Fold ATP synthase subunit gamma.
Amino acid sequence: MAMAALRREGKRFAPLISPRSIDAARSSLISEELAPQGVRSISTQVVRNRMKSVKNIQKITKAMKMVAASKLRAIQVRAENSRGLWQPFTALLGDSPSIDVKRNVIVTISSDKGLCGGINSTSVKMSKGFYKLNSGPDKESKYVVVGEKAKAQLVRDSKKDIEISITELQKNPLNYTQVSVLADDILKNVEYDALRIIFNKFHSVVSFVPTMATVLSPEVVEREAEAGGKLGDLDSYEIEGGDTKAEVLMNLAEFQFSCVLFNAVLENACSEQGARMSAMDSSSRNAGDMLDRLTLTYNRSLSLSLSLSLSLSLSLTHTQLHHLCVIES
């Protein structure tokens, strides 16, 4: 009789102590303990997915840093060698950024790709600042934009002032012939008294210097030479051959602009790769810090879940034994 009664009571409590009911009660208790009032609990699966995505991002940023480092080593040597092209012009004609002329053409050098920090914004801000300083009723300033990033920023509020825009210049390895053809096209399509080439001069992997180089037109060079000053030394040189002084100054201005533009493009490309290395290194370190925080959150959630599961199992086992002891008595 007692055994039959025990079996009947056991059937009554079977849904309570079944494995399925234990798991359901365990999950509800864990969610109540983990989540604050009115906030959903953190799922360990969500944290694992987040950790996986952060690891993938970290792999990409590290790979981009290595690619930028390899490109920098190749371009840096060419940029340093190109400095010998424009330095003789600086020794002969000087660099006159403060000279006052009526028609300024601002040649802004930028990159075609992003993920390189604020290097392109620096060139654009410097170009806009010079444009505001040299704008007035009797002055005219125009833009020649080299690079997709500067074009995207200047076209917003200065679209009517952009004379020429050139993109994908760095798609192929740069050489002097390519840049000289580009310089010749610019000179044929714009009227200028002074060309202001704005670029980022490479200083080191972690630093670059916004720089402006000035190339004067032959008319302005001749006018300044007659007025004296540094350009007055040009009259002490003798002209050989049948070319006139105006023809020599024209050829000199064209050659100077092509050399300065070639060096500016290479210097800016070096600065771009150096800035990209720094940006990708910072991104990799930030991803590592985020991964550490996610790992800590995951471990805490997992340990809390295990402790709650263990305590729940023990409490259910104690309840089961209590009911059985009551039935037996």
